[in-house]
Amino acid sequence: MDFYTNMQILDGKQASIFYQEQLAAESREFETITGKKPHLAAVLVGNSGPSETYVAAKMETCRKVGFQSSLIRFEPSITENELLLEIDKLNQDPDLHGFIVQLPLPAHIDVNKVIERIDPAKDVDGFHPVNLGKMAKGLPAFASATPWGIIKLMEYYNIETEGKHVVVLGRSQIVGLPMSLLLSRNSRPGNATVTVCHSKSRNLTDMARQADILVAALGIPEFVKKEMVKEGAVVIDVGLSRVPDETRKSGYRLVGDVAFDEVAPICSAITPVPGGVGPMTITALMQNTMVAARQQTGII
Ligand code: NAP
Predict the structure, then answer these.
(1) Of 22, 78, 73, 87, nearest to 43 (Cα)?
(2) What does the pLDDT look like over 217-250, one tens digit per residue?
(3) CA of 147 to the centre of ligand 1 (A)
(4) How many angstroms separate the CA atoms of 123 and 160, rounded?
(5) How far is the CA of 219 from the centre of ligand 1 (A)?
(6) What is the reported pTM?
(7) Atom of ligand 1 lying closest to residue 241 CA
(8) Which residues contact 223 (CB under 8 A, 6 or more apart)?
(9) Can you tell me the distance from the alpha carbon of 154 to that of 157, in angstroms, rounded to the nearest whole number?
(10) Nearest alpha carbon to residue 115 among 141, 80, 73, 71
(11) How far apart are CA 2 and CA 109, in angstroms?
């Protein structure tokens, strides 16, 4: 394949190894001081295949970095009120530093009510409005794990964002919106000029083509084609979709929102799927958990 000169794969697995080694050292130090490990719990309602996979990966990463982990399962029939009461218990559990509720939830449960019930001090996914608001104001907060992982990935690869035009495709509360806030704030990485596009945006191809850094977070497999990408752009592919593939034992393969094979050759840097943003999301979750553990035990 004829790649752009010096095209770089932004390898989220490699960056994660680097950050997770730091976390393992911090975790050991925390245990020496407190006699306890940082403790992360994941709440899983039902047993959808992708959610099981994501939660298992999070629990496995806890083991790697020396955290305690708990997987708390509920039947898909759990009522909204029952789930809210379970969240109250986790909020009050002094042995638990952070927890996540794996999304999506069954349709009969209001996801916003659930997120708003989580104590912001334990909201290591960074979904609570208090954390989103503090992050928007540039105050210390748990930033949403996926965009925070992307920030750490950019830092690892020295991707300059200052003064760059970033186009974010997608404005979801857990990816697109916090990504745009993090990149536009007065910090490094940050200080970018950010355009946010969504399903009502017009001339998406023209918009995307203006990007020095293009972040694709739509959830539409291979939506971004080469005509949407400026030569030399940095492309961050957040999308993760399962598409049927009879040649695979699993019957599916994972694809991103970017048509990698045609876009990669014209980029200066690009994240692969899998192995780009996904591992960094988990690493960012671990970093947030480490901070939560320190804050709750008074260790700065
Ligand atoms: P989401 O909540 O469904 O949001 C999708 C966004 O894309 C919305 O803002 C939507 O616009 C916009 N959009 C949809 N179709 C569009 C179109 N044709 N043109 C322009 N904009 C369009 O999804 P999400 O939670 O942000 O996730 C996005 C993708 O990232 C999914 O594939 C998800 O699996 C993946 N993801 C990966 C990770 C990871 O760790 N790798 C983590 C989180 C998410 P409107 O607002 O107008 O509806």
Answers:
(1) 73
(2) 999 999 999 999 999 999 999 999 999 999 999 9
(3) 13
(4) 29
(5) 4
(6) 0.96
(7) 32
(8) 169, 216, 239, 257, 258, 259
(9) 5
(10) 80
(11) 49
